[in-house]
Amino acid sequence: MTPIVFHFDVISPFAYLAFEHLPEALKDCSYVVDYRPVLFAGLLKAHGHKGPAEIPAKREWTFRQVDWLAARLGLGQMRCPAPHPFNPLALLRLALACQPAGRMPNRRVVETLMRHVWQAGGADPNEPVRLAALRAALAPPRDPDSEEVKAELRALTDSAIARGLFGVPSFEMSGRLYWGLDALPMLRDDLLAIEPR
């Protein structure tokens, strides 16, 4: 199976769509995914960019487009969390805390976090009661607020920047980077090209 690294931040609606669509997009391919949380704001800062939601006209377009894309992909209606952009640090750290040090979150953990943000009818992802319930449901073996976990997220973000990442979702396969939901067909073609016949 070919390893694919999926760099994500739960703040991105495109990361959510790519996460949900990945199994269909790579159907009949032989691959294994390594899910790596990164802080999108860190990527933006490193490259001197603003996030799409920080530019009013782009924000309006983005959420109109992702709603259309979700319907087109058969994922139902999306509703942007009322506070967006929001601070995703608690969720990204929770993802890492669900595994022992040095191991990345599995698909179930990432799915739980993504759906907490994007299938909650516009609810605040950081609302304390919701966040506490999410943490209880995932029951992380490590403290998401520990210095160890915080350092891991910083290191993953720094490593992503050093590898040339500038946005999420980003995929990495065989030393090549693929950016965005719309890169999934290209990723599939390249994956099929390297698979043994």
Question: How does this structure look, described?
Answer:
The chain has 197 residues and is α+β, with helices and mostly antiparallel strands. It has a single domain (2-194), classed as Glutaredoxin (3-Layer(aba) Sandwich). Helices cover 49% and strands 11% of the residues. A four-stranded mixed sheet has the order 2-1-3-4, sandwiched between helices. Helix 1 packs across helix 5 (107-118) and helix 4 crosses helix 7 (147-162). The longest helix is centred in the N-terminal third of the chain and has 17 residues, at 56-72. The protein starts with a strand and ends with a helix. The mean pLDDT is 95.
Write a short abstract of this structure.
By secondary structure, the protein is α+β, with helices and mostly antiparallel strands.
**Overall number of structural domains:** 1
User: β content, as a range?
Assistant: 5-15%
Structural class: alpha+beta
Number of strands: 4
Helix-strand string:
EHEHHHHHHEEH
Question: Which tags fit this structure?
Answer:
alpha+beta, Glutaredoxin, four-stranded mixed sheet, 197 residues
List the helices and strands and how they pair.
Blueprint lengths: L1 E7 L4 H13 L5 E7 L2 H8 L8 H17 L16 H9 L9 H12 L9 H11 L8 H16 L7 E4 L2 E4 L4 H11 L3
Parallel strand pairs: 1-2
Antiparallel strand pairs: 1-3, 3-4
Helix pairs in contact: 1-5, 2-7, 4-7
